[in-house]
Amino acid sequence: MYDLFFIVPFVLMGKQIKIPELTEAITIVLSKLYKEKGSKVLLKLNNDYYSEIGKSLGLERYTSADHNVTCSKLFAICDFLEISLSDFFKLVEAENELLKFNKNRKGALVKNAYENQNKK
Questions:
Q1: Burial class (CB in 10 A: 0-12, 13-18, 19+), 62
Q2: Does residue 33 fall inside a structural domain?
Q3: Number of structural domains found in the chain
Q4: pLDDT tens-digit profile of 49-60?
Q5: Cα 58 from Cα 55, distance rounded (Å)
Q6: Residue 53: closest CA among 37, 70, 76
Q7: What is the pTM of this model?
Q8: Residue 7: inside a domain, yes or no?
Q9: DSSP per-residue string spanning 50-85
Q10: Is residue 6 one of the residues assigned to a domain?
Q11: What SS3 class is residue 4?
Q12: Beta carbons within 8 Å of 17's beta carbon, 6+ residues apart
């Protein structure tokens, strides 16, 4: 009986949704910040960060549209790139105006993401 208790929550968990507009805007902003710092400089800094923290950021992965970055990873990337989360998200919203809250569009992007996930 106890075995079932520990297994069921993992079976019922669904796949994370991906909001394409958000993912694309994050990718563009990270790519711009990455380019501003210079990839060779970032490679050395990333290696230093890895030595200090013990974890690679995998920045290159997030400069392509094939990701769904977690809040914790995004915080670590922003920390590494020396930008606050609030400033980062201002850049993301500036990249795609649909990401700014608008009462008339409330829930539309999220609803579309769930509908598209269910089609797959």
A1: buried
A2: yes
A3: 1
A4: 666 666 666 666
A5: 9
A6: 76
A7: 0.73
A8: no
A9: HHHHS----HHHHTSSS----HHHHHHHHHHHT--H
A10: no
A11: helix
A12: 110, 113, 114, 117
